[in-house]
UniProtKB/TrEMBL annotation:
PANTHER family: DDE_TNP_1_7 DOMAIN-CONTAINING PROTEIN (PTHR47055), PHORBOL-ESTER_DAG-TYPE DOMAIN-CONTAINING PROTEIN (PTHR47055:SF3). InterPro entries: PGBD, PiggyBac_TE-derived. It comes from Exocentrus adspersus. GO terms for molecular function: sequence-specific DNA binding. This is PiggyBac transposable element-derived protein domain-containing protein. Pfam families: DDE_Tnp_1_7. It comes from the Eukaryota.
Amino acid sequence: MLRFRHLELWSRIGIAYLLHLSYEGIRGTGTIPLNRIPSNPLKSTGELKKCPRGTYDHKSDIGIKLTILSWNDNSVVSLVSNAVGINPIRMVKRYSKQEKKSVSVPQPHIIKLYNANMGGVDRSDQNLSLYRTGIRGKKLYFC
C-alpha cells in the first residue's frame, strides 16, 4: 500500500532519514545543514554569498528522486526534498537595499513548496505553547 503524503520537516534533517521516508512512500522537504551531506557536492556558503541574490546550486539524483539545493536570498539556505525538484523556477520580488527598490529574483520550486507549508508548522508550535497540558500528576497526600 503506497501512501502519498508530504511532510514539511521543520527540524534540520539528514539525507538518511529522507531516504527512509522515500522508501515508505512519504514525501518530504526540509532544511539541511551542509555538514550533514556526505561528500558535499554543492558550493560552499561563502562562495554563494559572493554571488548575486537568487543564485542557487543544486544536485539531483534521479534514481532515488532526491534533490539538494543551496539558494542565496538574504542568506544562504540549504534544502533537501524527495517531493519536487527545482523546476519550474519562478521570479519573486525582493527589496534591494542597494537599489532601494524591489527587484526580481529567481526562486526554485523547492523554496516555494517549503515556504507555502511552513505556516502549518508555525501554527502547530503556537498551539503547543498556548495550550500545553500538564503531564505531571498532582501530588496526593494521605493523612
